[in-house]
Amino acid sequence: MDKPKHHILVCASFRAQGTPQGICHKKESLSLIPYIESELSDRGMTDVTVSATGCLNLCEKGPVLVVYPESFWYGEIDSEGKIDDILDALEEGESCEDHLIN
Asked: pTM value?
């Protein structure tokens, strides 16, 4: 496997003790992953990897997604429409300003 061009991290709220805390998992952040993967496949974006992460410590902005290597941090990503906006921007090589955490 080649190194991915982009890596999307999805906060799953897990802490060192293993128990999810915070907001992202309570707002079903993990249920977004299959949709993201499906959309990436449909768009032919085979150079993007998606991973669940431990807590990203921005609970008040959850669910949180991060796109690397660009370091775009997105907050309150709770719908397929918002994911579509982010992937549209990523395809264009840009950030999705509407959902960026400032």
From this structure: 0.90
